Amino acid sequence: KSDAATTVTALLAAPALELDSAYVVSAGIAGGPPERVALGSVVIADSVVDWDRKHRWDRTQTGASDGGDAHGDVGAAVDTDPAAGLDLLAYRPRDYVHRLDTELVDAALEAAADATLDSDPAARAYQDEYEFSDAPIAGPTVERGTTVCGDEFWHGPRYAREVAWLCEAYGVAPYLTTQMEDAATATALDRFGLLDRYLSVRAVANYDRPAPGETVEESFDGNAASLDLARENAARVGRTVVTELVASDPLGVGTDSLKT
User: Fold this and answer.
1) Per-residue confidence (pLDDT) for residue 78, from 0 to 100
2) Which of 41, 97, 209, 213 can pair with 37 through a Cys bridge, CB separation 3.0 to 4.6 Å?
């Protein structure tokens, strides 16, 4: 996140760059929940949540210094109930969720409908290892929803429940993608009064928890087919969205100078 924020800030502050008539699109890959999205699907975010801004409480301890678990029942609750160990940041000046411009997101989704998404039988076979009754049965699609951004490389069902809890606390559940840059990009743009120009386009390369019979290490990266598929579909949708933004200028920021 620090890399993204400082890079975007440097670009916005550079006197040699004229960005008054520019939109900003982050296009890349992401993780996602297996019960919500098919591998290779592309999500255009309407909300960007900062995963790192929260309280994490160790309520298994009451002043003990030996590192032992003083309250085993509380420890078990933390594993299954995120509210037992998490709270929204008490001294936050605002909620750490960026709600992106509805008109711009609508325009991007309309443009993305014209993109042809790729599919891959090997990625689909890997997806089918996730035996959720409500898992997606279709191939890749374009979706709208919440993306969650954090510096921490988390993986597994316990932490997925915590992410879901945070999104519910902010009123933007369910989340569809997870990544590591977009909250920082949105924060930098917001400081320059340009948040309404921002789009996050993320394709799902892997799931955020293991399939039955897998370890978290084995499942972390998905597989080569799902990674390649996500890269391709992120590029296809990103290219289609950028082309439409320059052509139609949905917010009227003056993209005529960009039509080269």
Assistant:
1) 55
2) 41
